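Long-time lurker, first post. I've been practising inverse folding by hand and with some scripts of my own, and I keep getting stuck on stretches where the structure tokens seem ambiguous. Below is the full token string for one chain I'm working on. Before anyone asks, I'm not after the true native sequence, just a reasonable design that respects the backbone. If someone could post their per-position residues I'd love to compare against what I wrote down in my notebook.
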């Protein structure tokens, strides 16, 4: 791909689409984006060369737009609210073809199905990390004090449960306090799971663990945390965030660290089997 060939971006919600667009621009690359109405931040419009607003399920409209604009690869960045996905989807023929081939409607199967469809139409999907410098969580303490003994025990439990949750392709985050699993991420998303955990614990502390699903495809749905995650934890009284090193995106790492320091929250990256 040459510098004159634009990058295609299929944008969902959150900060990631904007970071990908800015990262590409810093490399002298232009971006043409398809953004989802009611999901994508409107600020993306000022960060890309061309932008098309689409409804969820308008797959063929996205393909036609990206090919017309000269894109030869595409990044899928940002999520789609799962509740909205059930109520707002307007599938076109492309979406119907994808759905017809699926073995299940779990996230991983659906995203792989979309990626395969885009590939067949000349738009191979690449990882957003290709355009994000230093965005992956490092191993070790990112900010804050080292975990205490009770936090370590809770983190180990959360690490184990998060692996099982990922195997079921349900979610990526688990909240634990005092050896009790308070909340598992499901359709509501990470921040709402954290808030639910805070309500159950009386906002008295706890550990949030977020890690990759086993067999995670690095092109999409990588676990991601940012300042919003930390703010949700502060609201819920959680005191530590453990993420999988080198497999978790830090969205606005400086902002995340600043928010964590202000709230007194420790952020740690674990690798492999975690801390034995």
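-- Answer (accepted) --
I ran through it position by position. Result:
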């Amino acid at each position: 791909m040459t510098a004159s060939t634009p990058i295609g971006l299929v944008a969902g919600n959150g900060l990631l689409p904007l970071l990908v667009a800015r990262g590409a621009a810093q490399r002298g690359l232009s971006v043409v984006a398809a953004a989802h109405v009611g999901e994508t931040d409107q600020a993306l419009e000022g960060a890309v060369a061309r932008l098309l607003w689409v409804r969820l399920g308008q797959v063929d409209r996205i393909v036609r737009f990206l090919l017309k604009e000269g894109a030869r690869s595409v990044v899928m960045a940002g999520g789609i609210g799962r509740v909205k996905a059930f109520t707002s989807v307007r599938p076109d023929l492309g979406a119907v073809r994808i759905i017809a081939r699926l073995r299940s409607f779990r996230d991983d199967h659906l995203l792989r199905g979309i990626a395969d469809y885009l590939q067949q139409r000349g738009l191979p999907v690449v990882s957003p990390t290709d355009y994000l410098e230093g965005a992956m969580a490092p191993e070790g303490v990112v900010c804050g004090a080292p975990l205490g003994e009770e936090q370590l025990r809770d983190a180990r439990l959360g690490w184990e449960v998060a692996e099982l949750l990922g195997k079921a392709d349900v979610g990526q985050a688990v909240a634990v306090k005092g050896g009790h699993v308070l909340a598992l991420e499901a359709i509501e998303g990470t921040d709402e799971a954290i808030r639910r955990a805070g309500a159950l614990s009386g906002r008295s502390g706890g550990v949030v663990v977020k890690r990759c699903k086993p067999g995670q495809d690095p092109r999409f749905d990588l676990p991601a945390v940012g300042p919003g995650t930390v703010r949700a934890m502060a609201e819920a009284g959680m005191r530590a965030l453990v993420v999988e090193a080198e497999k978790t995106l830090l969205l606005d790492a400086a902002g995340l660290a600043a928010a964590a320091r202000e709230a007194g929250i420790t952020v740690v990256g674990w690798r492999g089997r975690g801390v034995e």
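A couple of notes from the structure itself: Residues 149-167 form the longest helix (19 residues). The chain has a mean pLDDT of 91. Happy to go over any region you disagree with.
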